[in-house]
Amino acid sequence: MTSSPDEAALWWATAVSHIEPGSIELRDRPVQDLIGRASLVDVIWLMLRGTTPSPPESALLEAALVAGVDHGPQAPSIAAARMAATCGIGLNNAVATGVNMLGDAHGGAGQQCVEMLTDIRTLHTSGLGWDDAAHEVMAAWQSRSRYLPGFGHRFHPVDPRSGPLLGLVRQAVADGVVGGDFLDGALAVEEALRRRRAGARPVPMNIDGATAVIYAELGFAAPLARGLFVLSRSVGILAHAWEESGQGRRNKGPLPRNVLPARLPQPKDP
Q1: What's an example Gene Ontology biological process for this entry (predicted)?
Q2: CA distance 138 to 116
Q3: Sequence-ordered list of residues with C-beta below 8 angstroms from that of 207, at least 6 positions apart, any chain
Q4: How are strands ordered across the β-sheet holding 17-20?
């Protein structure tokens, strides 16, 4: 059986881009019309959504992306990229090593939080108040896990990134840029946790929760919350891998060479 050029073209047909000799179009926009006119954030929106954002939407998305860029070498994705950079591989491989560490437990909380906030909003739309909707969805999530995605931080008593982001969302709601339902749902969860943990260490919203509010308010699907976080964090991963590659170390491991891991006691034969 033979195939025609038209069949091959249909096989790879896409609305994302169109390439011909002398022509490059991104979502039907000639690339030369975007260069120098559209920001990278605008193009991210265009490629994912097929439209261009308003300036306030673009600014809100950019704030979320900036906030998630880096969280230091103790983050597994960044530690892995730094170690990989000393193993004789290329910079792209080191970045890929770090990005591939971003899974459900490390890097997936934003997506999970969007899913949780969407459930709360759905219940609220059906007639429940924000507090009751939050309690119901929180109970369902905590029946599966002790963690609520987007709330609490193992390192920061109060995440320094969440306050500025939530302030921008509040302003966007006041300006009519976004609706505010996802913000209200997230604040209802935060308040429920505050009341539940009266006298104990608070569990405020963290970066994953704050960016989840932004991504949801801007209309991004939950899986794209993780994808956008990956784009953001890859900048920090690249910076760390590049720095490490210039320090001359070879085969960097998780511990300094003069520190040996403790020998674990061997199990006794029964």
Answers
A1: tricarboxylic acid cycle
A2: 8
A3: 67, 68, 153, 159, 161, 162, 165
A4: 17-20, 23-26, 29-30
Q: Rounded to whole angstroms, how far apart are CA atoms 135 and 25?
A: 47
Q: Which pLDDT tens digit goes with each residue over 2-41?
A: 566 688 888 888 999 999 999 999 999 999 999 999 999 9
Helix (H) or strand (E) holding 34: helix 31-34
Structural domains of the chain sorted by starting position, each given as residue range(s) with its CATH number in brackets: 109-225 (1.10.230.10)
* Residues contacting residue 151 through CB under 8 Å, at least 6 positions apart: 189, 190, 193, 203, 204, 205, 206, 209
CA distance 160 to 67: 10
Give the residue from 93, 115, 99 showing the smallest Cα distance to 232: 99
pLDDT in tens, 108-131: 999 999 999 999 999 999 999 999
Catalogue the E-assigned strands of the chain.
Answer: 17-20, 23-26, 29-30
Task: Look at the pTM and tell me if it is higher than 0.70.
Answer: yes
Q: 253 and 208 in contact (C-beta within 8 Å)?
A: no
- Give 46-85 as a DSSP string: HHHHSS---HHHHHHHHHHHHHTS---TTSHHHHHHHHHH
